[in-house]
From TrEMBL:
Entries under InterPro entries matching the protein: ATPase_NBD, Type_III_PanK
Binding-site residues for ATP, renumbered to this chain: D7, V8, G9, N10, T11, R12, L13, K14, T134
Keywords, comma-separated and alphabetical: ATP-binding, Coenzyme A biosynthesis, Cytoplasm, Kinase, Nucleotide-binding, Potassium, Transferase
Gene3D superfamilies: 3.30.420.40
Pathway noted in the entry: Cofactor biosynthesis; coenzyme A biosynthesis; CoA from (R)-pantothenate: step 1/5
Lineage of producing organism: Bacteria, Pseudomonadati, Pseudomonadota, Betaproteobacteria, Burkholderiales
Organism encoding this protein: Ramlibacter tataouinensis
Family to which this protein belongs: Belongs to the type III pantothenate kinase family.
Cofactor(s), names only, from the UniProt record: K(+); NH4(+)
Protein name as annotated: Type III pantothenate kinase
Cellular localization per UniProt: Cytoplasm
Enzyme Commission no: 2.7.1.33
Known partners and oligomeric status: Homodimer.
Length: 256
């Protein structure tokens, strides 16, 4: 029973086809497309895949984008599109957001993936789950599985574009991350990186003080590999956190 998992962010669509809708299932194929290229999925990377019997996705891009993804599926397959909406509780997690359904589905699914990854290797502990994509999100989860709350920050690209468009003298190429930057490129690149690192480390402190225990630290997202070397405390980089969460939810929904 092939299972298609899809994560539609504000920059790219990521997809993965699994042999079964459950954690640990064999990965048959996977890929990523910038949103401007998603109308070619059916005739391109999806053309030679097996027909999935189930699909589950999370999408935070505009509804029109979600519709275009559904059209690509309809072109070649007969499978209902199911999109995750954050809820008050799912797969062991409780959601303390003021309005639980307003939490980004990608954030909710990544936390579910992280929670089950932790439980697979040891006892429950508090966690900080970071996603570095178009935006950066920094989530706090306690050892009972309660999502306490999280930060949303601009990602690297948005920070740079904001500075470029709001100033006259900051149109420069990408630089390197330096402790003491001595040119504009390095100053911008380092400023963005350490702004994100600082917010993340602050959340680790909040969780440590609130829960009285050192949190486990997970990082994911397309730009996670850029951030993780610059953290003053190590984060486990897990590229598949959203897919792990979708597999976990799929197990509950599709295999009872
Ligand atoms: N090879 C790459 N392709 C696409 N994005 C990349 C790549 N390397 C790093 N990035 C960064 O990852 C971000 C996209 O990450 P992603 O997790 O796909 O975002 P989103 O989920 O918001 O669409 C881009 O903003 C970019 O900064
Ligand atoms: C915070 C986000 C923009 C992150 O999007 P991404 O960087 O993954 O494209 C997305 O999760 C979102 O639109 N959330 C809804 C608002 C909220 O979570 O409070
Ligand atoms: K995302």
């Amino acid at each position: 029973m092939a299972f298609l998992a899809i994560d539609v962010g504000n920059t790219r669509l990521k997809w993965a086809m699994y042999a079964q809708p459950r954690p640990g299932a064999a990965l048959l194929a996977h890929g990523a497309e910038f949103l401007e290229n998603i109308d070619k999925l059916a005739e391109g990377p999806w053309a030679r895949l097996p027909q999935p019997q189930r699909m589950l996705g999370c999408a935070v891009a505009a509804d029109a984008i979600k519709r275009r993804v559904e059209e690509q599926m309809e072109e070649i397959w007969d499978v209902p599109a199911q999109w995750v909406v954050a809820s008050a509780a799912e797969a062991g997690l409780a959601n303390r957001y003021d309005h639980p359904t307003r939490l980004g589905a990608d954030r909710w699914v990544a936390m579910i993936g992280a929670w089950h990854r932790m439980l697979a290797s040891g006892p429950a502990r508090p966690m900080v789950v970071v996603m570095v994509g178009t935006a950066v999100t920094v989530e706090a989860v306690d050892a009972t599985g309660a999502f306490l709350g999280g930060f949303i920050l601009p990602g690297h690209g948005i920070m740079l574009r904001a500075l470029e468009s709001g100033t006259a003298g900051l149109h420069v190429p990408t630089g390197d991350v330096r402790e003491f930057p001595t040119n504009t490129s390095d100053a911008l690149t380092s400023g963005g990186t350490f702004a994100i690192a600082g917010a993340i480390e602050r959340m680790v402190k909040h969780v440590r003080e609130h829960c009285g225990e050192e949190p486990l630290r997970y990082m994911t997202g397309g730009a996670g590999w850029k951030m993780s070397p610059h953290m003053s405390m190590p984060f486990e980089l897990v590229e598949s956190l959203i897919f792990d969460g979708l597999l976990e939810i799929a197990r509950h929904r599709f295999t009872g």
